[in-house]
Amino acid sequence: MSKAYRLLLSAALLSVAVPALAKAPPSPQEAGQSVEEFKKGLHPQTGTITLPGAKARLNLGQSYYFLGPDAARKVLVDAWGNPADAADGVLGMIFPAGKDFADSWGAVVTFEETGHITDEDAASEDYASVLKDMQKATEEANADRVAAGYHKLHLAGWAQAPTYDSSKKVLVWARDLAAEGEPEHSLNYDVRSLGRTGVLSLNMVDGMSNLSLVKAAAGQLGQTVQFDSGARYADFVPGTDSEAGYGLAGLVAAGAGVAAAKKVGLIGLILAFGKKLAVLLAVAAGGAWKWLKGRFGKGDEDGDASAA
C-alpha cells in the first residue's frame, strides 16, 4: 500500500476524531418562524442544475430537487444544528421529490480540486485492506473521542463495497457505522464523480434500515452528474494538469475524512429525522429525541420514541 494512501488515511480518520462542538443555532420555532414558513424560504429547483463552482451540471429531472448554497446552509445549520462552518463550500443539497429535510436523507453537494485521480488500478484496488485500515484508525481514535465526551464509534463494515463505473467515472461506496448507545447503525453513502482535475461529491446519511432506498438513490444520483466540456475526466492533459497522486482507494480513504469533517459523515452533528436515528454524538443517547422535539415540536416524545 502506497505512502500517499496511508497519509490520506491518517488525515481522513485521525484528524477528525474530535470535532469542535459549537452551540446549536436557534431552531425555526425558537426564532419565531414556523416549519412551513421555513420550508417556503428554501426555493427548491428541479430539472437541470448548473454548478459553476464545479464546472458541472446535475440532470435531476423531476425525481429530485435541489437547494442552492444559501438554502442548504439554512438546512445544515438552522434545521440540523450543525456548526456554521459545516456549510462552508457546500454547493447545495439534493432531496427526493415529495420529501424534505424533516423526513428524508439529503445529499450534500461539494466539489474539491484534488488534481486528476487515476483510475488505472480500478480493477485491482484492494478495498478489503482499505476497510481494515479504516477500522483500525477509527478504533485508535476512540480514546480521543471518549476524552472529549463523545461516544465510541465503530466502523462495522461496508454497507456497499466501493463500486466503480468506468464509463461514467463514478465511484460509490457506503459505510455501516455504529455509535455506542445508539440502537440503529448509521448509513453513510458516498458518491464521487471524477472530473478533469477535481471530484464532485454527494454525501448522504440515513439509518441502516433504509439501506435499499438510499442505495437506489445513490446509484441514480451518480448518473445525473455531467461535467462541462473541458472539465471532463477525458479532457485531462498529462504533464500539464495537476495530479492527485493517488487512485480510487485513496479517494475512499479521503472521503471518510471529507464526510466527517465537513458536514454529515462519521461523527458529524447531523440528526436523522422521522423514524430513524443517525450517529448522535453531540447529544446524549437518551436525549436525542427530546432534542429533536425541542427544535421542531414533533409530536409526543413517548410516541415518537416507540415508533423509531
Task: Please specify the SSE layout and strand pairing.
Blueprint: H1 3-14, H2 35-40, E1 48-51, E2 56-59, E3 64-67, H3 69-79, E4 92-96, E5 107-112, H4 127-140, H5 142-147, E6 153-165, E7 170-179, E8 186-194, E9 199-207, H6 211-222, E10 225-227, H7 248-262, H8 288-296, H9 301-307
Antiparallel strand pairs: 1-2, 2-10, 3-4, 4-5, 5-9, 6-7, 7-8, 8-9
Helix pairs in contact: 1-4, 1-7
Describe this structure in words.
Keywords: Signal. This is Membrane-anchored protein. With 308 residues, the chain is of the alpha+beta class. It is built from nine helices and ten strands. The strands form two sheets. The protein has a seven-stranded antiparallel sheet with strand order 3-4-5-9-8-7-6, sandwiched between helices. Helix 1 crosses helix 4 and helix 1 (3-14) runs parallel beside helix 7 (248-262).
Descriptive terms for the model:
single chain; alpha+beta; Protein Transport Mog1p, Chain A; seven-stranded antiparallel beta sheet; three-stranded antiparallel beta sheet; 10 strands; Membrane-anchored protein; DUF2167_membr; signal
Total beta-strand segments? 10
User: What is the percent of helical residues?
Assistant: 25-40%
Count of DSSP-assigned helices:
9
Stretches where pLDDT is under 50 for at least 5 consecutive residues are 1-25, 258-308
Q: Strand-and-helix sequence, N→C?
A: HHEEEHEEHHEEEEHEHHH
Strand order of the largest sheet: 3-4-5-9-8-7-6
**What fold name goes in the CATH topology slot?**
Protein Transport Mog1p, Chain A
